[in-house]
Design brief:
This protein has 11 helices and 9 strands. It has helices spanning 2-5, 20-31, 53-57, 60-76, 114-128, 153-161, 174-185, 210-219, 241-250, 261-274, 291-310, and strands spanning 7-9, 79-91, 94-100, 133-139, 143-150, 193-199, 222-229, 255-258, 278-289.
Amino acid sequence: MNLLRNISFQNPEFLLLLLLIPIIGLWYYFKKPEKNINLILPSLASLSDVSSFRGKLLFLIPLLRTLALGAIVLALARPQLTLKEEEINADGIDIIISMDTSSSMLARDFKPNRIEVSKNLAADFVSKRKYDRIGLVVFAAEAFTQCPLTTDHEVIKRFIKSLQCGMLEDGTAIGMGLASAVNRLKESKSKSKVIILLTDGLNSEGYIDPQTAADIAKEFDIKIYTIGIGRPSRFRNSIDEPLLRSVAEKTGGQYFRAQSESALAEIYDYIDQLEKTKIEISTFKRYSEEFRMFLFWALIFLAIEFFLKNTLLRTFP
């Protein structure tokens, strides 16, 4: 069906000749010449069930002639196959996802837990950013780069899916998570650089203060979006919302609070809308001439008709 949508005709007026086909068919049906041979037989009873194999195939002669006519008409209409080429110029965004993998991310206020929900939604976010380079930083009491900036989104999604709590010494070093992300973005030539930091705790570890990391990000024109994940609980440390809000606003970003899976999904969708990649698509069209195929089939039909008419289906006056 896609092929038919890409076919156009340079001389479509010739297609009107296809109307001759049903007219010719009716003419054959009503005006076919009678060619009867008179034989004197004592009785026709013995021939009542006789059906000639050649007689059954005689319809092939007008059918092949009609098919040949139809193919010739289509060739005259000059069918062309449209071949599209797209040249995409994308002004992509460089994005680092910095994710908390401390033990508190195993909390089950999200199903099955915070870390699994965070991984799944981060991977979904990556899938939407077709033209962007994306990297992954993980942190607990320390931080490291799990995956540098890449356009291979299948690779980054595999790294996200492989994240587990306990990969690093337990704790929450928000400043380290930010600093590692900034380090990956500071040399980027992209016009837009973004960090998405997700955490569920207070900054309790690391030798780099989150505010200092935010100041450095601002110097390199890096925007930070911070997400506090988890529902309030008297059994766990609360999220330092003033800190996360200050870090985000200092760089022109925003702070979000996600207390449910649906809320976190909406946050990622909102960030996706805020950080749109500029894409310019130039479409070029080429055309390939397809009339030769129809002429070829017309010749095939006529050749088969000629062969049958002069051999197997040959008739005598």
